[in-house]
Amino acid sequence: MSKNLVGRRGVLAGTGIAAAAGVLAMAPGANATVTTAKGSAPKNMPLAFNADGKFKIVQFNDTQDGRLTDRRTIELMEKVLDTEKPGFALINGDVINGSPRTAKEVKEAYNNVVMPMESRGIKWAVTFGNHDEDSLSNQTGMREEEIVAFLQQYKHNLNPSPVKGVYGHCNAQLLIRSASKNTAAFGIWLLDSNRYAPDTLGGQNFDGLMGYDWIRPNQIQWYTEASEATERKFGKKIQSLMFFHIPTFEHHHMWFGQQFSSDEAGVAAAKVKHSIEGEKHEEVYTGAFNSGIYAAAQERGDVRGMYCGHDHINTYKGDYFGIELGYGPGTGYGTYGLGGVENHRLRGARVFELDESVATVYAGTRTVFAKDLGVDTTNGDQRLTTPVAFPSYVK
Known about the structure:
Blueprint: E1 47-48, E2 54-60, H1 71-84, E3 88-92, H2 103-118, E4 123-127, H3 144-151, E5 172-177, E6 184-190, E7 200-201, E8 204-205, H4 217-234, E9 240-243, H5 249-256, H6 267-273, H7 293-300, E10 303-308, E11 317-320, E12 323-327, E13 348-355, E14 362-369
Parallel strand pairs: 1-5, 2-3, 3-4, 6-9, 9-10, 10-12
Antiparallel strand pairs: 2-13, 5-6, 7-8, 11-12, 13-14
Helix pairs in contact: 1-2, 4-7
Domain Calcineurin-like phosphoesterase: 55-313
Pfam family, one: Metallophos
Organism: Neomicrococcus aestuarii
């Protein structure tokens, strides 16, 4: 594990085991829609705009807990869902932490935080973060492949099955059907930003770099080819939002208004230039290498926003040369926050509004916080005494 991943974030659990190769689905779950091969467009649309031409997406992040999740994490998720009534909800990485000691405990940890969506009949998916395989160090045997197979038992899950050919385990393209005709009106891209950088590469270690992995070139190739195929299928570029766990280098550059500096002197001008809103309380913990996903999306011109998690106490977003870059707030109460009496102040979620009457369909985004929904934000833990019950159809 990289020595760079300490400080406010704490000592990370796990051993930095490299993620196994895997990919996008040729055999999706029952509800999923994904590209079936490189260069082909999705076969169907699992999501649809409401009759009024509107649709909401909710992004949760870093629920990051074990089998006895802090009950306020679940309460927060439930209140957001009941208030916003989204058509789709996402937990954008680090769904659990490394504390489970058996495969069953891994499943219990996931079940605790997916049941708010599942029990309400809201379609949902997860992306993977750097912590979701950390329990492997406890010999749980729950790699991301096994986790996906488990999640696909849920009736409302849209995660595809990983197959060989594209790096990662949660890459997917989900299309949202228009309210008025049988065509795609908007899209959702999910990408696996993977886990930790390897110990060495080319005979060199990663000292001095961020110790996280990055979105790999064949994932970007897959996105580009699938985007082009979708354009051919529908006769236009389908505007979309893209979600992955670990932020891009551009998330950093946007905040500081500079590429190679973290000088706060540039922040005020950057906030004006990029219409930045929200807070930043920790470093932008990127992958070790710049993956190039921002440049690829900029060239394709079909991504309206790229949203991440990972840095729990950063909530900002802005317009970076035509693509929104931003964070969803950290949702989970069981992991680090601001510290002190304000530790849980930024627990929350991000809401995205879609409207077919808007030229780009994307109508904007906003954050919602636990404190605004009446969820307790006092410091300390409030653990479940027993895990949430599994649905009868999930083993």
